[in-house]
Amino acid sequence: MHRPRPWLLALVIAASPVPGTTAAADSISVEPEDCPTGSAGVTSHCGAECAPLPCKVDGDCRDKKVCRPTKLCIEKGERPGCGRVPDQIKYPYQVVHGECPSGGKCGKGTCEEARRCVPPPLLSCEGCHVGGASGAWLFPLLGLALLLLRRRSPAGRPAREDDR
Q: CA nearest 61: which of 135, 115, 10?
């Protein structure tokens, strides 16, 4: 006859579901990816939103971004801790609703111009200089183009084998 093993009994009891209990999860939304230039997606227990990326100089920015003046529609205020702390405690917030329209009148928030981290321009000429450069490099390119045109037949169509 086998003796019951106490560790096996403990394992069965630990693995058994306990009726009437529920699990509570700490749910936070995913950061938005479509934030306007000069802002970034953030998430908290208050929800997902776009927050401004303030800066003073390029060195304040991350991810190869640069610090430039940007106009954004920003809503500012105070709100409770969204269930994480007592609602009597208010916290300041800033939410970016979009870029300022041409008239400067935002649908939500106020149009504010400030220096913010933005992607670098595609073409930049900081530190470029034009003086002393000549167009001499164009002559070989022009010669090559003329040589290719000359290889065509007089009628303007490419030369065929039987024309030669």
A: 115
